[in-house]
Design a protein that fits this description.
single chain; Spore Coat Polysaccharide Biosynthesis Protein SpsA, Chain A; 9-stranded mixed beta sheet; two-stranded antiparallel sheet; 11 helices; globular
Length: about 250
């Protein structure tokens, strides 16, 4: 299996109803059972056969206390997600493809990570982005509300981890922020594609390959969607109801 490095984004994003209810200033450090969300995510990546070095970008002192004794590179956070990706990349200096993962997916498993890496062969695109079919998500997390896009191949929701080719990073970084900003709103992301695509989307005729082609035209980098059978890769904790689910199931 190909070994890739990983960056966990654990930067502060400002107060939310979730952080205020848990009395923390960063949801990465919300505790679920005996461990924080960051510890859950780090543990999954660490146990994955396809992951090598790991860097965590965020508040250094809190990360060091949270992951004390672990083999991890701690990187101070910047002001934006894209700046944090760049800082993690500069600290790791990965020689090949690397993962970028959020710190708020505590359900993540080593199997989900390894399956994603294997599914990206032969590693020809600039970005690989996992998507999960609604039926798989409903089976694993019944009743959980997610945002889905209806495509010709089925209904899909997005993941919170991507595989990136470092060769494209310099030109892609300015565009990454726009994608990250819209990643939780697939309809807004799809609206960038234009009227024809929206019509196709409405009639469920828009295909994954058409989306990939349009993505390359808009952002000057090639992206490929990878269908994952692991809903854990995209089930994040953003709301109090998400946290209650995580504490019940983990």
């Amino acid at each position: 299996m190909k070994i890739v490095d990983a960056i966990i984004l654990a930067g502060s994003a400002g107060p939310t109803a979730l952080t205020e209810a848990e009395m923390v200033d960063n949801k990465a450090f919300i505790r679920i059972r005996e461990r924080t969300m960051l510890q859950h995510v780090y543990g999954a990546l660490k146990r994955a056969a396809g992951v090598g070095r790991i860097a965590v970008v965020g508040p250094q002192d809190k990360i060091k206390a949270c992951l004390e004794g672990q083999d991890v590179l701690v990187v101070p956070e910047g002001k934006t997600i894209v700046e944090n990706v760049e800082r993690g990349f500069k600290a790791l200096q990965p020689e090949g493809y690397f993962l970028v993962c959020s710190a708020d997916i505590p359900f993540l498993t080593p199997e989900a990570v390894d399956e994603l890496i294997l599914a990206c062969k032969p590693f020809t695109a600039d970005f690989y982005y996992p998507i999960v079919e609604r039926s798989d998500n409903d089976k694993r997390f019944p009743g959980v509300k997610r945002t889905y896009v209806r495509l010709a191949e089925g209904e899909f929701t997005g993941g919170n981890i991507i595989l990136v080719n470092p060769a494209c990073l310099k030109k892609a970084l300015p565009r990454l922020e726009r994608v990250f900003a819209l990643r939780k709103s697939p309809l807004k992301l799809t609206s960038l594609l234009g009227f024809t695509f929206l019509v196709k989307l409405f009639f469920r005729r828009l295909t994954i390959k058409e989306l990939e082609k349009r993505f390359a035209e808009l952002f000057a980098v090639t992206g490929k969607a990878v269908i994952s059978r692991y809903p854990e890769i995209g089930t994040d904790v953003d709301k109090l109801s998400d946290l209650a689910l995580a504490r019940r199931l983990l």
